[in-house]
Specification:
The chain has 14 helices and 13 strands. By secondary structure, the chain is α/β, with parallel strands linked by helices. It holds the Pfam family Glyco_transf_4.
């Protein structure tokens, strides 16, 4: 069986999930990764391991912004048709709306109607603009199966979405939830390595707050910066580190300067995944300040729940779904409220981390979000849609 995944080259979180899939799917399944260089993908393309056959589509933008998107769309449709002819996949698995909508358009052509299509919704439906929402609705009929990475995402697409215990919608079995999976064993190995090197008696160092995520407005990093003046008065050596990159970098730095906390903010860009885990283990507080407008799952939150570090997260539906409940190891603050965030961080810094129960967090991740669980769910889905297609083709 050959499965073709397609998304923008810089969609780091998507390709991380696909990489995890490639390591755990049963033998006999070949994965082709189509990285699309275009559609305003500003991040560096992810590098594939030897387990994924890489294929790239490069789009040349036009000089005029209004015509550039149309030109890129025509280029993609032509290139994707050629890719399908060359690779002849059994299943095409699409992710974000763009280039997903254009891929579905190509798959409606008579020559491609036998190709099975699986679509995974990663972002909240309302976070897309009207054009993307319309395109998603228009071509939904072409999907043999529609997957959502959380119940929150599912209900944003379908208010009546009602999954059973296995995650399948009781009303329309084409729709289901499959939670994103992370390699819990690999992360816990990194956590153990870091803890083995940390001295029993903590050294005197700067208290560190850490966030992981793209530098975009939806990730809420500015809320932490807005809370820093009050926190710095209590902890003069406090440092806020953000692991990520994006178009909001300049705005965040200017905001820090205007609040006179620039010396307390460090935008470190993207770093190696294991290094990011090490940073989360060593931090005093991991902060997940995402806004409710877009966040569909929160891979970084699930990873942080394995690190044994206190977490402060925005109270948004998907984070409550992932974390399940407030605890002394993970505390919520009011979404979009920097004062609530600052008070919650202050409370965490004043508490004894040894009293926090991190076992419940790590147990939930192992039970709900382990990569093996995700891979088995997708393997079952691939087999199901392939069997259904063969039955209908008889």
């Amino acid at each position: 069986m050959k499965i073709l995944h397609c998304d923008r080259a810089g969609a780091l979180a998507i390709w991380q999930v696909v990489e995890n899939l490639s390591t755990t799917l049963p033998d006999g399944i070949e994965i082709v990764g189509c990285r699309v260089h275009g559609f305003r993908s500003s991040l560096e393309p992810v590098a594939f391991s030897s387990r994924i056959v890489g294929s790239d589509i490069y789009l040349k933008p036009g000089r005029l912004p209004a015509l550039s998107r149309l030109l890129e769309a025509f280029q993609f449709v032509r290139a994707f048709r050629k890719l399908l002819l060359r690779e002849r996949p059994d299943i095409v698995h699409l992710h974000f709306a763009m280039p997903g909508i254009l891929s579905k358009l190509v798959l409606t052509f008579p020559s491609n109607r036998k190709v099975i299509l699986v679509s995974t919704g990663h972002e909240l439906f309302g976070s897309m603009n009207a054009l993307l929402r319309g395109g998603t609705r228009l071509f939904e009929f072409r999907s043999n199966a529609v997957v959502y990475v959380s119940q929150s995402v599912g209900r944003s697409y379908r208010p009546s979405f009602d999954p059973d215990e296995s995650g399948v919608d009781r009303e329309d079995t084409r729709h289901r939830v499959i939670y994103n999976g992370i390699d819990t064993n690999a992360i816990q190995n990194v956590v153990q390595q870091v803890n083995a090197k940390v001295p029993m008696t903590p050294s005197v160092r700067r208290p560190t707050l850490l966030s992981v995520g793209r530098l975009v407005q939806e990730k809420g990093h500015e809320l932490v910066i807005q809370a820093l003046p009050g926190l710095v008065r209590q902890h003069p050596d406090l440092c806020y580190v953000v692991l990520g990159e994006g178009p909001y970098r300049g705005h965040l730095l200017e905001l820090a300067r205007s609040l006179d906390v620039a010396q307390h903010v460090q935008l470190s860009g993207w770093i190696d995944h294991d290094q990011a885990i090490r940073q989360m283990v060593l931090a005093d507080v991991v902060i997940m300040p995402s806004r409710s407008v877009q966040e569909g799952f929160g891979l970084a939150l699930a990873e942080a729940m394995l690190c044994g570090t206190p977490i402060v997260a925005s109270r948004i539906p998907v984070f409550e779904e992932v974390a399940d409940d407030d605890s002394n190891a993970l505390r919520f603050f009011t979404d979009g409220d920097s004062s609530s965030l600052g008070q919650t961080i202050s409370d965490v810094l004043a508490s004894d981390p040894n009293e926090a129960n991190f076992d419940l967090l790590s147990q939930r991740v192992r039970e709900k979000f382990d990569v093996q669980r995700m891979s088995q769910a997708y393997a079952d889905l691939y087999a199901e849609v392939l069997a259904d297609s063969q039955t209908r083709g008889r």
